[in-house]
Amino acid sequence: MWWFTTRKSGINSVNLQELLGFGSYHTAWNWLQKLRRCTIRQDREKLSGRVEVDEFVIGGQKSGKRGRGAEGKIIVAAAVERDEQNKQIGRIRLQLLLDYSAFSLETFINENIVSGSTIVTDSWSSYPAIIKEQRHVRINQSRSTEGQKSLYGVHIVASLIKRLIRGTYQGRFEPKYLQNYLDEYVFRFNRRKSKFIGKKFMRIVQQVVNSTKIKCCDIKWDVDPLSEYYAT
Predict the structure, then answer these.
(1) Which of 26, 94, 132, 146 is in Cβ range 3.0-4.6 Å of 182 for a Cys bridge?
(2) In Å, what is the CA distance from 230 to each residue of 32, 75, 174, 176?
(3) 3-class DSSP state of 26
């Protein structure tokens, strides 16, 4: 738990195996998967204030359409608090989406953002119909040139996620476990300003103690090191 919470860029199974001298990669992988499932509190506070919302994709470099028209990629929704007076980023939320439909986006927004907040999005057609109880600000990305008025915060977070997958995880991941990796990143990012490293360690200890017991058999170990999914 100490290595898991104190390493700035996270830790992968190979690193943990070497640090703790495990004879089995399987053991290190199982431990990390269990810890990742304890990073999110069910009763955590929703985001509020000015919140930027957008989606990005993770997946192999394939020919064809880019962005929302891309096929064979995993869709991730991101919500980021950002102060209106400066570019400072607050808390974040990350969640896998099945598609770009209004239903998927509305579910993500309702589960993660306080009613009455100001939601900033791009000009995607699904957003106006679902943002009803919040103030909605739409930005035309092709015409926006000022950092203050763009989706600066959410784009920075998307870039950091892709860099993490390329760096810490060498671009390899199993799609069905990706939400666990995103949850770990949210846990680490939202506590990045903590002055005391020990606080992050104590938080994961508390959440592990309060979590439901997870057995190894509950985590199917079928990660393929040569997975076809790679970070863009």
Answers:
(1) 94
(2) 20, 14, 9, 14
(3) helix
CB burial of residue 220 (10 Å; 0-12, 13-18, 19+): exposed
**Residue 106 identity:** E
Phi, psi of 116 (to 5 degrees): 100, -5
Q: Which residues contact 127 (CB under 8 A, 6 or more apart)?
A: 53, 105, 119, 121, 136, 138
Residue given tokens 């506070």 in the structure block: 45
CA-nearest of 90, 83, 129, 138 to 112 is 90
Angle CA(141)–CA(146)–CA(149) in degrees, nearest 5? 65
Among candidate residues 178, 184, 164, the one with its CA nearest the CA of residue 97: 178
pLDDT single digits (tens) 179-194:
999 999 999 999 988 8
pTM confidence score: 0.82
Spell out the domain ranges in the chain. 1-232
Three-state DSSP class for 32? helix
Q: Which residues contact 115 (CB under 8 A, 6 or more apart)?
A: 133, 134
Which of 38, 29, 63 shows the shortest CA–CA distance to 219?
29
Q: How far out from the chain centre does Cα 112 lie? A: 13
